[in-house]
Amino acid sequence: MLRQSGGVIGLTFLLLVALPGPASSGMERGRGYQEELRPTDELLEQRVKAALAVDPTVESFEIVVTVFRGSVRLNGAVDTDEERARAGSIAADIEGVLEVENQITVERPLVSTDRSDAEMRRQIVDEVADAFPDENIDISVEDGLATIRGAVSSAEARGRITEIAFRAGALLVKNQLAVESE
């Protein structure tokens, strides 16, 4: 035992030896500590939803995200295989996600239209300009596929613009709008 007046060093030494460390049975405690550092399911769900909402290629309002013990399940319907794959990739890239079960389906519209691409584009441009006059948006339509590029101020605006394109008769909408940070 160490000797010093007051015995403080000896007491400190005993406390340090008594605490479990990596070489003792404290390994179980160490693993539990790492699990405590993993984000909660609620936090992971929020992070996945936020990442999907800001991605310009994914229409996140059609995707339902659930998380259980670090595993993410994606459900819902999107317009393209690329959008489905991108949603799964985004979820997998979130720190703390252990696995992703992508159950999103691709549902291409079966509606045919007798409207020309030019008519559809004109209607989309007019409605978007009325609803979002301050947004920077480029719209093209080819063979019934409406492609929307640019930037908008919110995820809600992004979703509403997609709806406008479908109402105008687009068979498919490729929404590549970025959501600018508020």
Q: List segments where confidence is low: pLDDT < 50 over at least 5 consecutive residues.
A: 1-33
Structural class: alpha/beta
User: Helical stretch count?
Assistant: 6
Task: Work out the strand percent.
Answer: 15-25%
Helical content band: 40-55%
Radius of gyration: 26 Å
What is the terminal-to-terminal distance? 63 Å
What would you call the shape? elongated
Average pLDDT confidence is: 80
**Strands side by side in the biggest sheet:** 1-2-3
The major sheet is characterized as: 3 strands, mixed
Strand tally, please?
6
Order of helices and strands: HHHEEHEHEEHE
SSE diagram, text form:
Layout lengths: L7 H11 L8 H11 L3 H14 L8 E6 L2 E8 L2 H12 L6 E8 L10 H15 L4 E7 L2 E8 L2 H13 L4 E8 L3
Parallel strand pairs: 2-3, 5-6
Antiparallel strand pairs: 1-2, 4-5
Explain how this protein is built:
The protein has 182 residues and is an alpha/beta fold. The strands form two sheets. A three-stranded mixed sheet has the order 1-2-3. A three-stranded mixed sheet has the order 4-5-6. The longest helix has 15 residues, at 117-131. It is built from six helices and six strands.
Quick structural overview:
The chain has 182 residues and is α/β, with parallel strands linked by helices. Helix content is 42%, strand content 25%. The protein starts with 7 loop residues before the first helix and ends with a strand.
